[in-house]
Known about the structure:
This protein has 3 domains: about 10-80, CATH 2.40.50.100; about 115-210 and about 225-240, CATH 2.40.50.100; about 320-530, Chloramphenicol acetyltransferase-like domain (Chloramphenicol Acetyltransferase, 2-Layer Sandwich), CATH 3.30.559.10. Helices cover about 20% and strands about 25% of the residues. It is built from 9 helices and 28 strands. The protein has helices spanning about 80, 195-205, 260-270, 285-290, 320-335, 345-355, 365-380, 425-440, 510-525, and strands at about 10-15, 25, 30-35, 40-45, 50-55, 60, 70, 115-120, 130-135, 145, 150-155, 160-165, 170-175, 180, 185-190, 240-245, 250, 255, 335-345, 385-390, 390-395, 400, 405, 410, 415, 450-455, 475-490, 490-505.
Amino acid sequence: MPRLSDTMEEGTVAKWFKKVGDQVSEGDILAEIETDKATMEFESFNEGELLHIGIQEGGTAPVDTLLAIIGDKGEDISALLSGGDVTTSEPEEEKVVAPSADTGASSETVAMPEGAEVITMPRLSDTMEEGTVAKWNIKVGDTVNEGDILAEIETDKATMEFESFYQGELLHIGLQEGESAPVDSVLAVIGKAGTDPNLIVAALASSSEPPIKQEATPLPEPVPTKTEAVSEVQSSALVAAPVISAPPVKSNGRIIASPLAKKLAFEKGIDLSRVQGTGDGGRIIKRDIDQYQPQAAGTIQAFVPSGTESITEIANSQMRKTIAKRLSASKFSAPHYYLGVEFDMDNAIAFRNQYNSIPDTKISFNDIVVKAAALSLKRHHQVNAKWEEHQITQHHHVHVGVAVAVEDGLVVPVVKFTDEQTLPQIGAVVKDYAFRARDKKLKPEEMDGSTFTISNLGMFGIQEFTSIINQPNGAILSVGAIVQKPVVKDGAIVVGNTMKLTLACDHRVVDGATGAQFLQTLREFVENPLTMVL
């Protein structure tokens, strides 16, 4: 797998033009390779017979992984495939086998007693990695009924009641109040009354490593529970489920109901104040909800949703992976700051209308901004610069990168020596780049070497935004839409046309005053565009 760009780390075979057994001549196109920037034809530098294909169409592999083997007809390549220096596939993860230690205990596995159910620390939110036992409501030896609240679990978001879906005796508690452990650690065991607790401890010790516990810390004040319906039990290993709910309140006091009953009532649209509880002390339990029959008169029909929850999963393309990696590196390594300005565009509108009246000539406002930025960069080398480990490099040539949106993300083709090109030349180059970018036909050298970048979302109606710096550039200019609005000119309020721009700067390279001076020069060119052609 060749490295077809400086940022490429892996490639995807989009299409093979040869099959095993075909003759290959030097210069033949073997395949199309999708990189992080474009889909490129891959040419053979060898001739012979295609003996082996290492990556099928649609397959992805790191750079330097075996792509194919070309050799003499009938040549034995088994040594290359079975242990030669060539990598034939993505390396398997190294298997680490921990040496066994003589702990003095028998290595024989002890089975969990019949009927015993292991309760593990549940994942009560999508971001939860560990939980803390805030309070146990049941102690070892107590009888547990379906719907009983076993404990209160403190997560990263709330403190939740944890309800049992089983009945039996609480045989073992794995975490004491105030202790924390990762999700899926042993929380408790419920089973038949009279089961020897020592058997439980032995079975847990022999089946897995004991859970990692954190030192108990003073618990905070109880966190109020939040109203939320839990849609399903996450795993068959869980024998209890959380319910975050605020019970309804009647005029004469609080309605007592199990969390499971509240959940079912919520799902069925049942008003708990109309349900007669048959549990201890009049507590409403699951059976009461299942058997509840609403009165014919004076009731509101329960809502029954007709839609279904659904998602779409889209595999990350090579381009999307690289965009994520590079922008994350830029955002978290370069100290960004932003300078915002608003330009008067009346003269630019009149200039563009006159320019486009020339036969066979058409320029855009983006072309005007690109040209104005290029001329401004020639006067402010500090902005036309990049940060390096031991120095700041200021460019005296101007290569403006123009961000282009494509189906998979964003590419930045580069207009070389932008300041030397005319407005129509800039417009023609940008249009050509945009057209070929959407077909993934840009060459790597057409996307390398930018000294400054412009991102324009004005065409989509966006009035103002900020961009992440396209490293190694020291700055990026965000261009918004032209809007009509009341403005003050010569002391009077009139209708004007304005455009907002935001300059994002790497503070290691561009100081605030330097960025402001660049924007002043840019304003002079954009608000008086005739100065760019004289």
